[in-house]
Amino acid sequence: VISSITGDNAAEGSNNTFSVSLSGTTAAETTIVLTLAGDTATKGVDFNGTSVIVVINGVSQTVPVNEDGTFQVTVPTNTNSFSVQVSTIDDNIYEGNETFTLSGAGTNSIVTGTATITDDGSNGGTDDSPVVNGISSPTVSEGESATFDVSLSNASTTATTVTLTLAGGSATAGTDFTSSEVTITYQDGTTQTVAVNGDGSFEVAIPAGDTTFSISVQTTDDNVYEGSESFTLSGKTATQGTAITTTGTIVDNDEVPTIKSIGTGDVTATEGDALIFTVKLSNVSSTSTSFDFLLQDGTATSDDYGAASFSNGVTYDASTGKITVPTGVTSFTVNVPTTNDSIEEADETVKLTIGGKEVIGTIVDNDNAPVIDDATVNNLSESIANGTEVYDVHEARTGNDTDLDGEALQYTFVHSNNTRSTTSEDGAFSIDPGTGKITVLDTTKLDYESATSIVLKVETTDGVNKDTADITLNLTNVNDSDTVFTKESETFNYAEGTAAGVTLGKVTATDADGDSISYSIAQEHNVYAADDVNKERPFYQVDANGNVSLTEAGEKAFTNDYESGRNTHTITVTATGTDGSGADTTDTIEVTLNETN
Predict the structure, then answer these.
(1) pTM score, two decimals?
(2) CB neighbours of 215 closer than 8 A, spacing ≥ 6?
(3) Which of 77, 187, 262, 478 is the most exposed place for a label (fewest CB within 10 A)?
(4) Are 21 and 101 contained in the same domain?
(5) CA-to-CA distance for 409 and 370, rounded, in angstroms?
């Protein structure tokens, strides 16, 4: 009978050997029945289940194995042990250590020995532990999922743990792709979301029998131009020395930035101030971007403006004629200084071109000459009081004493010799240099009889530019000259019987003011009949031209009869000069009237 059976460890593909010991030395040829059976190893799959090699005393023989695993060994005389060799099957499936048994009858029970088939490269065999032998390199548009197809070298009868690492390249983890989780798709189509560690590592347990799986990484669809970017996926198993690394490529779907706009329209600035152009890009870029830049004359020349400067780190290279916009910048300003000169000129222009976009900058001239208008002042009394304001000169367009540029104005009179003064040439007027108010300085210089109007030439200036205007003052006359008869007295002789209204003689008075002169005979200075107590019927009259004649009462009076009474009478004629001012002047003359026969 069998006392013991001992199996060994052998690499897959080699022979396992069972050592069989008998309870004693055989005295005669003996037949022993043994049974070959699978344990974790499968007969016919992992080891040969149809025959074995029996070695007795150094002699080998092949013994067939029955379907039920039994076979017979004939042991010769004087033998106490032998061995049974079982060949194992070398496959490419990782199974780990597998066992099978050989058993036979012992003294009181069945004696069993166990042999181990190793599959890990020990015992000189081939290591069937799966390794990562391939990872695809996907290329996707940003916003799409990048799928890495992973393959293992061979299948395993147990789950295989694969350690993988997700890392950024030119793409940034967490920004350009999701680095916190991935989606695993197994060979049977099922999916699983796996969390990614902070260092980018994660593990995937690949089911037994699977040799492929995929890992999907979500990329980010942003509006930043980045160009194509890459990141990596590395993977290996526990028995694998060096990880397999591959690259995923994210193709940017954003265009290279262009110049979207330069302001909302043409730009203006008053000369001396800067033209400020606000430039906007179409989208952001993860790299610096260059654009053609040209600032050129319009109607303005290089003397009217200076070199441009830029905000937000934008630089200009004169050798290339390009500006460079830094990473991440989507807007900036271009500042063009302008020259504040003293030349009165039309508004001037420059043209700015950036990346094919054009805009006009207008330099608004601030050297507008002041404008004052001619004016006429009527009815200015020649006797107006000193200090009286007669006219206020001001800027015609602003209505005050500043021009369109806001510059204060100064006023003077211009004399005939082209000199300037705040006093008029005749000394009659003064002008306030700051307000342009003209006032009477010396009223005695005004004389209607000498000049009925006065023209004052006024000049105003903003310090650079100037204008002149004629201010015409029309005087009104004041009755300041006496009315004077041309003679001190008159004697008129007239014939007896002269009819009423017939001119007896004419008196004449003059007035230097040229006033209208009227003539009259005061009641107390006329001649009346003795019975005309109330002096209602005078004998003499004078008309508007100074013609003296008899009234009807005078014609009928006895005094008009030379033979009837006194023939000499005296009257007083008054001449009155009237100019409408209320300041009338008068003169009188005695007229002797001699009636002749």
Answers:
(1) 0.46
(2) 147, 148, 150, 164, 182, 183, 184, 185, 204, 233
(3) 77
(4) yes
(5) 8
